[in-house]
Specification:
This protein is of the alpha/beta class and about 290 residues long. The protein is built from eleven helices and eight strands. The chain has a single domain, classed as TIM Barrel (Alpha-Beta Barrel). The chain is globular and about 55 Å long. The structure holds flavin-adenine dinucleotide.
């Protein structure tokens, strides 16, 4: 009894300490927290891209609850006059269980987004889901032009994928990529990823389709500004806020990606891994408790 009690106390404490760090990148647990953060982004001159955290869902009930959460969120954004949209991970909507289930769920969200006059983004996850995610995206695009997809510059296949998506009139969010991938699929060095990002950026800027430059890398952002094209800049909540203000001040279109929800750990671990200094932030928070 005593042991069980102290174990649950310890895990609660660890969770609270970790959440203190994660709070930098995550709006909070509830949709109300997300709406508040979105309105704050709007006040700072940016639109908001809201993501209900969760991934690799293996449980159908959980998938259904996630669909309901996004439908509710879209309604709240509409009612509260939030400038922005949602961004959804395919495995939240069942891609790891069944393609058809995921497709039906995305169709539901895309239809609701359309009714509400909102855009809908599809996040890109690890390489085993790339092919299905692109197929699903191109299907959705036939019914709703206001849907976009993330493409990862670290994947060797992305040049061919981008060409295919552009040909179909698709809207792309260009990211470097956040997952651990095998060298068989992905460029291993930062230089190779950056040079592929620039290559893909030139392809996007050379076309007529709207696209998003989603990076915090000043060099690539400067290149994107020089290249021009119908684009917006997207940055994550809690990262490079000064750069966001500079872009807004220079009259660029900017969006802040704002995650929320109870499943904040895997997302926060990716943010910590991206930068050594974030590990120090974590250590400091643990020491200062
Ligand atoms: C709007 C948006 C949506 C995204 N969607 C997806 C997606 O669908 N799929 C996917 O795989 N990835 C996605 N990502 C994540 C992306 O793939 C990268 O992992 C992430 O953006 C870090 O890479 P970077 O482009 O900022 O470049 P880096 O080379 O990692 O960083 C450039 C500079 O930005 C700053 N910086 C970067 N990361 C951090 C951090 N965590 N903390 C503090 N400073 C930091 C530093 O100054 C760093 O020098 C998204 C990113 C953004 C901005």
């Amino acid at each position: 009894m005593t042991v069980a009690h102290s174990q649950s106390y310890d895990s609660g404490l660890v969770e609270r300490l970790l959440f203190r760090v994660a709070r930098k990148w995550v709006a909070g647990y509830s949709s109300a927290d997300a709406i508040e953060a979105a309105l704050d982004a709007n006040r700072r001159g940016m639109s908001a891209i809201l993501n209900f955290l969760g991934e690799d869902t293996a449980d159908e009930g959980q998938v259904g609850a996630t669909v309901d959460e996004y439908l509710l969120l879209m309604g709240m954004m509409h009612d509260k006059n939030v400038q922005g949209c949602a961004s959804v991970k395919p495995t939240q909507l069942g891609l790891a269980i069944d393609y058809e289930m995921c497709r039906q769920n995305f169709k539901k969200l895309a239809a609701r987004a359309r009714e509400r006059g909102q855009f809908l983004w599809i996040d890109m996850e690890s390489a085993k889901f790339t092919e299905d995610t692109i197929t699903l995206y191109l299907e959705l695009l036939k019914e709703n032009p206001d849907v976009g997809i993330a493409v990862q510059a670290y994947l060797k296949r992305s040049g061919a994928d981008l060409l295919h998506i552009i040909e179909h009139g698709g809207k792309v969010r260009l990211v470097k990529g956040a997952y651990h991938e095998l060298e068989e699929h992905a460029f291993a060095s930062g230089e190779d990823v950056d040079s592929n990002y620039l290559h893909l950026l030139k392809m996007l800027a050379g076309g007529d389709n709207f696209f998003a430059v989603a990076t915090h890398d000043s060099k690539l952002i400067d290149e994107a500004i020089k290249l021009g094209g119908k684009c917006e800049f997207q940055l994550l909540m809690g990262i490079r806020d000064e750069l966001k203000s500079q872009l807004v001040a220079s009259k660029m279109t900017v969006a802040e990606y704002i995650p929320y929800g109870g499943q904040w750990l895997p997302y926060s671990v990716r943010r910590i891994r991206e930068r050594k200094r974030n590990l120090l932030l974590l250590a400091r928070s643990l020491i200062q408790q």
